[in-house]
Amino acid sequence: MTLNTIAYQLADSIDLKAFKASFPVEVFYEEPDEIFYEMPDQRLIYIFKYGVVCFLNYDEIKIAEFIRLIEPFCRNLIDNKLSEVLQIETGASENKFGYNKVELQQGKTNVLRIVMLNVSQSVALDYYSDQTNKLLLETHKHTQQLEQKGKLGISGKNLTKFIGKTLNLKNKIAENLYVFDSPDVTWEDEYLYKVDMGVKNTFDLQVRFKNVEEGLVIVKENLELFKDILQHRKSTALEWIIIILILVEVINLAVEKIFTK
Fold it and tell me: Which of 124, 130, 253, 261 has a 20 to 30 A CA-CA distance from 148?
């Protein structure tokens, strides 16, 4: 049997608790950061706190209907939704993992859930990679200014905002993505473990995750340098203010002496 799965990055995050309360369907599997539903007609939905929804065996019309249903529970909707597609062939003679298709011996719900988990993490990594690249481009712009003009063209307030944006993205990745850790159920089932690792390798999840982390480290190191430069600039300005105040005081004393004679 051939099944199609597609994951969308809809928003920065989804309020799972509120959505579950409004969606009267029995939950097949649930964790604080994810909810998995088994729907009629062999359809599956996987929803993640980090803003991703994954569909299996859904057509475009049903997908659009569900997205409209869940959008009110999303925070910071994304205009250009990222997506990841994977075709699943079940009942194969052996497991095979290709770029856009996997062949599996088993098509049980738990097996399909593991595949959908990895597809969802792949699209989330695309999103975080895009955010990291934007930070790198902005950082590069400031380093170019430093090279060409010998000074930074960013204020202390804007630098603080930039640092906050970087730390916020880093925290999101640390909290939401666990590509290095296989789900607990895979440690109890050898077949599930093989499927999990096979799909992870197909999407190069660990390599891509490491690239995002390294990109954020580069941004952080540059921001530390920028912060030191701005602090030095403030210290220099403060020193000049003190010198000017002392000079003014000296002039005042000199003037007073001249006019009191």
Answer: 130
Looking up tokens 């003679």, which residue turns up?
A: 93
The phi and psi torsions of 78 (rounded to 5 degrees) equal -95, 130
Which class for 122: exposed (0-12), middle (13-18), buried (19 or more C-beta within 10 A)?
A: buried
Closest CA to 169 of 201, 207, 138, 203: 138
Number of neighbours of residue 117 by Cβ within 10 angstroms: 25
Please identify which residue in the block is written with the tokens 């909707």: 77
**Residue 234: CA count within 13 A, CB half-sphere:** 9
Q: Does residue 221 carry a pLDDT above 70?
A: yes
* Pairwise CA distance, residues 11 & 123, whole Å: 12
> Six-digit token pair at 148?
């060409």
Q: How many helices (H) and strands (E) does the chain have?
A: 7, 8
Instruction: Provide CB contacts within 8 A for 22, sequence distance 6+.
Output: 73
CB 8 within 8 A of CB 52: yes
CB-CB contact of 52 with 123 (8 Å): yes
Write out 101-153 in H/E/C secondary structure: EEEECCCCHHHHHHHHHHHHHHHHHHHHHHHHHHHHHHHHHHHHHHHHHCCCC
For residue 67, pLDDT beyond 90: yes
Q: Going from the N-terminus, what domains does the chain have, and what CATH number goes with each?
A: 2-220 (3.30.310.10)
3-class SS shares of the chain: helix, strand, coil, % to 5: 60, 20, 20
Strand, coil or helix: what is 27? strand
pLDDT digits 0-9 by tens, 75-111: 989 988 899 999 999 988 999 998 889 999 988 999 9
